[in-house]
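Structure tokens please, single chain.
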Amino acid sequence: MSPERNVVQTIEPRAVNETFKEEDYKILRPSHELSWMLGLLSGAGYVAANGKIRLTSMRNPELLTEFRIVGQRLFGKEPQAGQPNVVCFFSKQIVQEIGDLRNDAWVETIQRRHRWVLDDKNLTWKFIEGIFDAKGHLRKNIAKNFVLFFMSTNFTNVDFIKKLLLSVGIRKPTTYPQEQPKESDIYTQYTISVYNIEDLKLIADNVHPKSPEKQKILKAIREKPDRPTDTGLYLEWKRLGKPSSYNIDKLKHEGETEFSREVYVRILGRGQISDRGSFTEAKKNLVKIDKGIESRDKRFQSEIGEDERQIWRYAVEHGLIKKMADAGMFTPQKLESIEIYCRTGIVPEDLTIGDFDQFTIGVANLVD
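Here you go.
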């Protein structure tokens, strides 16, 4: 049995979704722990007007333990003695401060009463973590890609979670059905999924679930190789001696490369031959990249001196690339391309002389 669905009885009519000010919190205080608790209770808790705040879980004792520990700190109370697989606190004042977290009301409560959750990315992540502890699922599909998904019969809730994910940098959350039917159907199950490995890695870096099973899958996601860029895949193909598709798979089988023929087709093989892609098309694009790099190499070699190249190598060797990324001087993709050039001497397609001039200035500023 999954955690109990959240329920709220009628709370006293102090406009339960009225925007709270800091002085309205008598016991609770905005914090990372409260943000997580609000996410958890929105997804799986029972909050009642009589003061009962309860979580039930048959499969996740670790979540119950965390609920008990965090609840003791936030509420300043010990949980009531009760049934196995249940942790229950009691406080009418805390319920009043939390507000209405019924399935059809919690989104508005968070947006109006606990707006601070949405105004700070770190706090938003903790709220997402609470929702994920309550309702999130992880699995692998038949293509061995990881999938994260939330399910709800309430379209507003799923749409709100999607907006939360977008606000913290998740680029491609997918909802199905994508729109609420014109005639409301209470039995419609709405799903939000994340398939993109970069998105999944961002979630894995910021969400720390209590379930050991979820922890294990997120660890595997963190360790999964990044999707190679066009230039990165070309560099690997060149390192291997520009092999044919047959030899790529042979080298993959022998452990000489991590990228199979299918990876080349998926990333570089889209073209006119087939909607599914082909290695023939991928090979054309590899050759095109090769010719473009050769042309750019000649131009850069004629315009950039050895002193400048030494400055850039120094930046790579002494970790200044990361400092530039943290400072927002360049996009991550641009810095990755500069690092490729510094390490290999190959000029990726997106680099210009102006980029290197700006990079030199940035290195000088950091060194100073």
